[in-house]
Amino acid sequence: MVKVEVCVDNLESVVLANRFPIQRIELCSALSVGGLSPSYGVLKQAVEISTIPIAVMVRPRAGDFLFSAQEIKAMQLEIELANKLGVKHIVIGALTANADLDLATIRQLLSVAEGMEVTFHRAFDLCRNPFEALEQLVELGIQRILTSGQAANALLGCALLQQLVKQANQRIDIMAGCGINAENVQMIIKTSQVPQIHCSAKGIRLSKMHSSSSVAMGQSHEQDQKIDVLDPHKLKAILQQIGSYK
């Protein structure tokens, strides 16, 4: 059976995800920029309310994956904190200026992640040589790679995903992610043979707060009234397509 990880960036979505037979919840903030580290309070509360294992994103800012010494230290502190809160799974990634794996930085992060499972996130999709990077991640002892097959979405990246699964040969899990929905999930799994998928099943609910003000906190007042949350119907449809939900 294909394992499913659902990515969320708020506690409401954590609660909703717990209604479904999934294997992990990836918790982050700011999904709109690819996901950043969640706050201490959100992470602590998520661990307390979730019966599904939490995988926490460790990424201090948006943009590239070339990190400074200060950012690396911040990530180490976040990993230590997550470990103390009982989180058993982290999601990391770091690259060099030449788009190779930043092995020195990754080792620094792993040095404070003793006993934790590790996913290398979609920084992998920017790697200059994904086949070399896969072998390096295996050698580092990382458990899985989240990737779209270096394409705009996992469906378009199926050819590379299939190659990576074959090369991995069960030494490391290849987890397909980006743009996965009920319409394409069967094709992605059948074509690539990935053992795991990663989806957000994002939806929107309207704010329950009533205000006559037109002041905008974000790009517009209208946008502020739309709260991004997990859509249970979308997640249910994905799970039904892979036989994980009746």
Automatic annotation (TrEMBL):
Keywords: Cytoplasm. Its main location: cytoplasm. One of its GO terms (molecular function) is copper ion binding. This is PF03932 family protein CutC. InterPro entries: CutC-like, CutC-like_dom_sf. Belongs to the CutC family. It is found in: Cytoplasm. HAMAP family: CutC. GO terms for cellular component: cytoplasm.
